Amino acid sequence: MDNKIEGYIANGDNIANLVANNIYNPISAIGEIDANFYDADGTKVNIELKEEEINNTMYITEIKISGDGTGMDKLALDNLKNIGDSNKKNKLITDKFKRRMLGSFGIASTAFQRLGSTMDIYSKTNSDTMLYKNIIINNDKSCLFSQVKYLEKCSEVNFESGCTFIIRNCRIKKTSLLGIKDGRPSLQKEILKNKLSYLPISKNFKITLCGEKIERFEIDKDAFSINIDGKIDEKNINGTIYIAKEAIKNKHYNGIYLKIDNRIIDWNIYDDIRGKIGTPGSVTAKIHGYIIADELREYINASRDGLTDTYIKESLVEFVKRNIAIINKKAKVYYQETNREQEQETNQQQGQETNREQEQETNQQQGQETNREQEQETNQQRGQEKTITVINISEEKKEKRKEKVEKKIREKNKDLYRLGIKFCYEPENEQEVIVVVSQMCQEDLLDFQIVQLNSKASTDGVVIKTDGTLAFLEFEKTLNNFFEHGHVYTDVDKIVCWDADEEKTRKEIGKYVSRYGMCIESIKFENDYIKFTNKDESIYKIKLYIISKIIKKL
Q: What is the phi-psi region of residue 385: left when phi exceeds 0, alpha when psi lies from -120 to 50, beta otherwise?
């Protein structure tokens, strides 16, 4: 009996379809096609999107990506049907710019399937010959590859050498790529721009999207920074982590990212450690950095959003975690000293100006006799007037506050009063919401008890539920404040607020999705829960307590 073990027998069309739909999304597919121009020693890539209205909905129906570089010869075009077979595995460095190749999986040719059903490829090498190949995806997901044709005349490649990819029959809703609404670019275009900026943008490699130049994010040069280095499994890693003075405007660059061969990997390492170190949200909005780990290139997964080796990944997370607390403390000291120096400089300037004014005044008064006694008497009178004014202002503020409080006492909240809550007044701020909720917990009116409060932690408090399990809770005056403050939704199990302004909440949710849109697909309300649907189709729910509504039912 022959015991020879044979390899897998695979259906290539099915594999191509599986690869395209499980590794790429429309945005990452465009980025992966662009990466091939970098590997071909290209210097410029241009992306154009053709729009068309179908049944009153705007769609992207055609995507054209063109650029210079070495171009694809007949052999390379013929090899497009060979999935997982890339000549880059044997040739890791480019000829002209000596770039480290970004791709090596041999699956980029499947990326277009996430965009359209037909792709025309025009290629020109250093010779004057233009090559053409067409790929069609049938309804049954099978692929048809045309033979390579030689074209005598063609204007699709406007470079001495290079390629043009035209992807047709896209039927991608315009909002999912460009997201133009009411004439304004929305989140999805920002995601696409940032995804493209993850490629090694430089003076020798430029990308334009619909005429707009793609640029890499650069943090303020005055931001506090610290360099870190180490080893993971005997492989060198190093990087720079910044903590800005103010929140970083480009939310897509909040966090700490892995950078391999100058390409940013779409994995925010900081997301994996944020819940473990308890840094306040203010720090989360200011942190930015890269861990450069070229020696880990063999562990990059095919979708370029993480590493395949769990041990390496966990070791890298632990390495960053160890450094964050130190960096945060040093940043605080740095900005305190910077503020002190700025304040001293300002005081010096003010002092110099004051001396200048006094000198001018003295010069004007030269030759005049000054009555010191009168001057002293005048100064005393001024001091008395100033003291009286200050006292009057203070008394006035106190009187106004007393009037406001007396009105509040008269206008008790009937539901809180009925329930025997001693602080039976409508809360004016988050602190007063905590007072109301604490007293409700004492009366067992809620399904949890507060066991810890900490305003400096990533969430306001920890509560114990009736089943004995713990949950993380965030207090807000109104629900829209939760989204406005930019809290990380996965850090929170419960939101407790006094009321919910629907219009403001809807508006803030829109801004919130713009901030976390790289992972959030949608936010919806279901009964007493807020349902967050993520890009990977996973679901996260936060239980919502609107106290003003709850007390009416008790």
A: alpha
Residue 267 contacts by C-beta under 8 Å, 6 or more apart in sequence?
257, 258, 305, 306, 307
Write the class of the CATH domain 224-332: alpha beta
Give the rounded distance of the alpha carbon of 239 from its chain centre: 19
From CA 488, how far away is CA 27, in angstroms rounded? 24
Domain boundaries, the chain: 12-213, 224-332, 378-411, 416-553
Q: Residue 473 contacts by C-beta under 8 Å, 6 or more apart in sequence? A: 448, 450, 459, 460, 461, 462, 463, 492, 493, 494, 495, 496
Alpha carbon 513 to its chain centroid, in Å, reads 10
- In angstroms, the CA 186 to CA 511 distance is 10
DSSP string, 476-526: EEEHHHHHHTT--GGG-SEEEEEE--HHHHHHHHHHHHHHHTTTEEEEEEE
The encoded tokens of residue 554 equal 């008790």
Q: Give the span between the Cα atoms of 328 and 165, in whole angstroms.
A: 46
C-alpha span between 461 and 176 (Å, rounded): 37
Token representation of residue 34: 């662009």
At residue 536, the 3 state secondary structure works out as: coil
Q: pLDDT tens per residue, the chain (554 residues)? A: 455 545 444 455 555 666 656 667 888 889 889 999 999 999 999 999 998 888 888 888 999 999 999 999 888 888 887 775 656 556 788 899 999 888 755 566 777 888 888 999 999 987 678 899 999 988 877 788 899 999 877 788 888 899 999 999 987 877 777 766 555 555 577 788 888 999 999 999 999 999 999 998 887 777 888 888 888 888 999 989 888 888 887 777 788 999 998 898 888 888 888 766 655 556 778 888 899 999 998 888 877 888 989 899 988 988 888 887 778 778 878 887 777 766 776 666 666 666 666 666 666 665 555 555 566 565 565 555 444 444 454 677 788 888 888 888 888 899 999 999 999 999 999 999 999 999 999 999 999 999 998 876 778 889 998 888 899 999 999 999 999 888 888 889 999 999 998 899 999 998 888 777 667 888 999 989 999 998 778 889 999 999 999 999 98
Please state the φ and ψ torsions of residue 179, each to the nearest 5 degrees: 65, 35
Instruction: Look at residue 395 and give its three-state secondary structure.
Output: helix
- Which segments of 1-56 does DSSP mark as H helices, in order? 12-23, 26-39
The phi, psi pair for 171, rounded to 5°, reads 50, 45
201: how many CB neighbours lie within 10 A of its CB? 18
29: Cβ–Cβ under 8 A, 6 or more apart, which residues? 20, 111, 112, 114, 115
- Residue 176 is classified by DSSP as H
The domain over range 12-213 is classified in CATH as 1.10.260.40: no
Q: What are the beta bridge partners of residue 464?
A: 449, 470
> Which among 275, 298, 327, 311 has a CA at the least distance from the CA of 492?
275
